[in-house]
Amino acid sequence: MTSTPATTGLIHLTDREPAVSGAEMVSALVPPPQFDGATFESYRADDAYPSQQEAKELLQAFAAKQSAPAKKGGFFRRAEKTPPVKPGVYLDGGFGVGKTHLLAAIYHAMPARRKYFGSFIEYTALVGVLGYAKAVELFRGSDLLCIDEFELDDPGDTMVMTRLLGELVASGTRLAATSNTPPNALGEGRFAAQDFLREIQSMADSFRTIRIDGTDFRQRAIDGEAKVLSDDDYRAALKTASAGSVASDDVFADLVGHLARVHPSRFIRLIDGVGVIGLRDVQVLHDQSAALRLVAFVDRAYDAQIPIRATGVALNTVFSDEMLAGGYRKKYLRAVSRLVALTHS
């Protein structure tokens, strides 16, 4: 791995060209630091949305359940017919309702010998680094695979993940996933999902979908607008930052361009040791690829809980109206929610 040392001082993310090995990617498949202590008990269900408490109880039962051998009938006894138990749970709901917290609670609650927790993009990146066969070999026989932010952005990801999960389920692995989209609607509005209906449906059949309603908890204590600083306030905010290095790039567009040269799986290394991220002269994005890379970057910054300070347009307006009306709308809205929260942290 090559990255800038985590020392206090001003750095430029555009100067960083991180690399990460397959072994490092595997070792990173654990819940983000902010969810180290996530439990079912610490999940605060909103009484206004009963589905939150219902989901919590269903997931507690899922985490506690141990796989049992199937009952077989003898010569003079017919085998008992029981409905098949889904090997996975799929948390479907809007952003900010605590899905990742509950996913991490499952991970911590299950006394599994081999378990993994990662974002969808981390798993697909790992398959890219190791190759499909080695990835299957790595995960086969594992007790639990947690997949956060399950989003299919292209047909290739669809094929890889459905087949990988199919092989793992056959080996006894249990699955838990979160998304803003029901499993039978993945890919909708983004590519010709009907061409991959069989693969998508096969994946959906492995999950019991649990709906979680509610409002975005990140917006409950703030006004819904990202903080925008003047140039003087921006310089003062970065000067007074005390934790870790301060990352500031003079032009927002330069950072967005740099993200195109770094694989999203390495974004976590890009911000390694950073205590504050400074974004100067933020502009509205109109390029879909650049916007999706920024979403992935924001996800990693949010996982690491790194505050953001910015000038220019408000970060809650960084995605164009056309993008917000398209197939990636939910991904952009999730990123906006996280950006607003990070500018207030």
UniProtKB/TrEMBL annotation:
One of its GO terms (biological process) is cell division. Keywords: ATP-binding, Cell cycle, Cell division, Nucleotide-binding. It comes from the Bacteria. Pfam families: AFG1_ATPase. The keyword ATP-binding applies. PANTHER family: AFG1-LIKE ATPASE (PTHR12169:SF6), ATPASE N2B (PTHR12169). This is Cell division protein ZapE. It comes from Microbacterium phycohabitans. The gene is zapE.
